Amino acid sequence: MGQLSGQVAIVTGASRGIGAAAAIELARQGAKVSLSARTAAACNDTLQKISDLGGDAFAASCDVSDYAAVEKLVQETMERFGRIDILVNNAGIIDPIGRLTDTDPKEWMRNIEVNLAGVYHGTRAALKLFEAQKSGTIINISSGAAHGPMEGWSAYCSGKAAVFMMTRATAHEFGELGVRVFGFAPGVVDTEMQVLIRGSGINPVSEIPRENLAAAEDPAKVIAWLCTDEANDLAGEELTIRDETLRKRAGLPPA
Ligand code: NAP
User: Fold this and answer.
1) What is the mean pLDDT of residues 152-177?
2) Does residue 3 sit within a domain?
3) Which of 81, 120, 130, 156 is an active site residue?
4) Which end of the chain is more exposed for a tag (fewer CB within 10 A), N or C?
5) In this model, does residue 1 exceed pLDDT 90?
6) CATH at 228
7) How far apart are the CA of 87 and the centre of ligand 1, in A?
8) Catalytic annotation on 67?
9) Residue 2 lies inside a defined structural domain of this protein
10) Which residues contact 106 (CB under 8 A, 6 or more apart)?
11) Dist. CA 126–CA 123, nearest whole Å
12) In what order do the strands lie in the sheet with 57-61?
């Protein structure tokens, strides 16, 4: 029996990258997992890996920028598994990359709709259940970009900074009602998002060689650990994988 046996997790953006690795790690530790991306079919590979582990998961189509779609995802998860304990607000995009005056206003706002409104949508839909059951864990995937500007990333930095405050606001309103909320910055991770960033050549992150990027399995381990009671004392906090104490507690080697 894994540490998360009996628990049910929703992971948004589970078709690849950090979301896929987190979903697989949650399943490895015994959680049943509701996978989602804009199309359910994009999650087939993640679904297969969970099935190979003997885990239980299903995939749904859900664009997190659409509140009705997120509510439907919560409903579908309840119908399939009968409960929800964990929400990982992971889905995110980096585009548009470019100096603020070079960005397309619609693309800029699309970033906010996915990265910020998407977190609000997931949180709002899940909190209705979490408040009633007086328990639940929400992990908002943050970034160093939430706390410092990076050339060419005005939308991404603005959205992630707002998600940092969303984590605090959610913890402020619901922390005493039994809901644990975490912000978690996963480090610089070898995913498709970093392929786009490298291709842009616009700031120092784009110059980091691929071999220096972390594997998605590293943040996935921390995400799964945050879902256990061992992380209770950290609820409400914005955490980073660069924190050596956190790494040790979550079972990762020193950075
Ligand atoms: P990724 O490989 O590009 O994966 C992004 C995921 O989000 C995919 O599953 C994608 O699925 C999904 N997605 C995109 N738009 C969506 C939408 N509108 N609705 C639902 N799902 C959507 O990126 P990643 O690096 O794993 O990033 C995951 C999270 O970590 C993001 O929040 C990102 O900001 C954060 N992060 C990443 C890094 C890094 O170095 N990689 C660093 C700091 C923070 P589909 O395209 O199939 O819909």
Assistant:
1) 98
2) no
3) 156
4) N
5) no
6) 3.40.50.720
7) 15
8) no
9) no
10) none
11) 5
12) 57-61, 32-37, 8-12, 86-89, 136-141, 179-185, 238-240
